[in-house]
Design brief:
By secondary structure, the chain is mainly alpha-helical. Helix content is 69%, strand content 5%. The chain is globular and about 50 Å long.
Length: 311
């Protein structure tokens, strides 16, 4: 991927992180910090920082580097939208075709280039993102393989029931250890999500913050297998949840419950936090199951319509 292409993607991710509050107002932004955060070299990071400075999303101070402004610019929403629209549309198109069985389980980059009319760089970038999010992997030798994800309402329910089994239990592990820094950071993020204009960030970014909350808490168990299992199932459910329209009322309820769990942990009430986590996940299952069913029914309706048209 050309450095200019990569720098654009880094600037988009930085803009989303700032909009979400993952990078706080007034926070110092170092090139090496961002390179480590996104697993890239410093050269495209420096280009991205310069781009965001030109757009007013970062401030450069002499001999001190870049900082997030104390007050975010009013055009932040337009900035994020302009940088994400095309990439998100193409990524969702690829994901939709896999979810609806329009693509075979194994593909080549050439097949995707011919099917969608995308450039080599575009295909490589989208497949790399799919690999990061856990639903694609490069085959040994040649080609790519799409991995099983939650394509049905039944699978979606099973994932949430699995989470109800492991997440509360992880808090009761003998090795569970409260880390105040982790709790404080998650509180800042969740409170920021309550205060933000949700229309200015993508559904993917909002869902990522929710997943991060649960994954950071389960890591406190001290048992890496809990964390690995949760990461895997989060990846498997992510695509179906991306298809759902963000419900602000439901998002506020989710963040409020996250903050309640944090308050219990901060007070040392781990058993109560474990019970609250199970309640939280049970409620999420009841709220989100209709999303899965509606999505699946919509796909079946489209398939039936296409079949009638073909007949």
């Amino acid at each position: 991927m050309r450095s200019s292409d990569l720098s654009k993607k880094i600037s988009r991710r930085l803009a989303e992180d700032i909009a979400l509050g993952n990078l706080a107002c007034g926070e110092h932004i170092a090139a090496q910090q961002i390179a480590d955060r996104y697993d890239v070299s410093r050269t495209p990071v420096r280009e991205a920082l310069e781009t965001l400075e030109d757009k007013g999303l970062l401030i450069r101070r002499v001999n001190r580097g870049y900082f997030v402004p104390e007050t975010l610019p009013e055009h932040l929403s337009e900035l994020v939208d302009s940088q994400t629209a095309n990439d998100v549309d193409d990524y969702q198109r690829l994901a939709d075709d896999w979810l609806t069985n329009e693509l075979p389980a194994e593909v080549t980059e050439q097949l995707l280039r011919e099917r969608y009319g995308w450039t080599k760089a575009k295909v490589s970038d989208l497949l790399a993102r799919a690999a990061r999010e856990g639903w694609a992997e490069r085959k040994e030798g040649y080609g790519w393989r799409f991995l099983p994800v939650a394509k049905t309402p039944e699978a979606f329910d099973e994932i949430y029931r699995f989470r109800m089994a492991i997440e509360p239990a992880a808090m009761l592990e003998p090795s569970f250890h409260l880390e105040r820094k982790v709790l404080s950071e998650q509180r800042r993020i969740q409170e920021g999500m309550l205060d933000m204009d949700h229309a200015r960030v993508t559904p993917e970014a909002l869902l990522e913050n929710g997943s991060l909350f649960h994954e950071e808490l389960i890591k406190l168990s001290g048992n890496p297998f809990f964390h690995m299992a949760l990461q895997r199932v989060n990846q498997m459910r992510r695509l179906m949840e991306y298809r759902a329209e963000i419900n602000v009322e439901r998002l506020v309820e989710q963040c409020t419950e996250h903050l309640e769990i944090l308050s219990l942990l901060e007070g040392g009430n781990v058993a109560d936090a474990s019970y609250k986590m199970r309640q939280h996940l049970s409620g999420a299952l009841k709220r989100k199951s209709p999303i899965a069913w509606n999505w699946a029914e919509a796909q079946n309706d489209v398939t039936d319509m296409e079949r009638r048209d073909n007949d």
